[in-house]
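Attaching the record inline, Q. Sequence:
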Amino acid sequence: MSDFDIIIVGGGMVGQAFALSMAKQDLTIAIIEPNNPNPDIQKNFHTRVSAITPTSEVFLRHIGVWDLIQRKHIFTDTKVWDENSHGSLDFSTADDDSEYLGHIVENDCIQSAMHSALSSTKVVFISAKLDSINKTAQGYQLHLDNEQLLQCTLLIGADGARSRVRNLADIKFTETNYQQQAIVCNIYSEKGFNKATWQRFLSNSIIALLPLSENEASIVWSAKNPLADELLALPPIAFAERLSASVEYRFGHFKILSDIAAFPLIERSAKDYVKENLALIGDAAHNIHPLAGQGVNLGFSDVNELSKQLNSRNQSLGDYNTLRSYARSRRLDNELMAKTMTGLNWIYKENSEPMRWLRGFGMNLINENPTLKSFLQKHATGR
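Structure, as predicted:
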């Protein structure tokens, strides 16, 4: 039996971030992660990326990670245009006198930097899967699939949208299946992206172009299942041509640089983020539609708030009231973002004539109102 103050199940970006945020305390911490928590950084860009907001950048600097990230691409503009109306939105640093709107960063680069930062701490990595948990008077006892027995005062579920911790703790959750898939790959473009992220709203899908360099980008094509299956069946050259045409050849012709992969889009929200001696963070507590690329930023905000609550505690590490303070602080923001993404997804897939007109009118109204646009931009970037 090994005893720890904190055990984190899940060694991805959010789990490692929480370990770093607590590592300066005089605590024993373990991370349970069956996969490689320190991914190798390849010469070519990875297809899974995040749009890191300035607020998340501040947090990553605070835990000593930002300067360790090997690759990050700044963007100063976000441009949105709609196929079925004359509506468009152009967010720019000029709208709120900021230097930039954020950075596009490969998830592997963030995770590798976190692992590097953790190498100088006493945090322990355990390569195993969680088998079962049992509540004890002091916290939780964990049984792993390698027959290890562990005990902790505080158990953290950072193990993603299909959280094992959440399920074993019998925490219920709501689920919205969008009947869509997110198709991801990396592309090369004939024309540059001009330090801007781009989104194109189509009748049956949404395309996001997230630049990794001036002429390379990661794409996320969120499509209804029948269309997604059709697109995934295309050979790379035909897929690239379909993608180029769908964004009106604004960037010339695309070339596919990676494998083309997909994952289902399902929004989940845990009904409880915490129990006594247990807390959920990141996608284990909530995962949303990738429409605005806010998923990992919400996870980092969870980590920031929970670590603040714990570091200022006067109670025991697993005190329920302390954990409830974290849950109350984060739930509104997370649910507001989730409902906003669900609402935007509905608005853009409805293509009746009145809805198209209203959508275009609304986009142009926002675009021509500097005060409203600045407000929305500051909220999206966390400023």
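The chain has a mean pLDDT of 90. The two ends are 45 Å apart (CA to CA).

More tomorrow.
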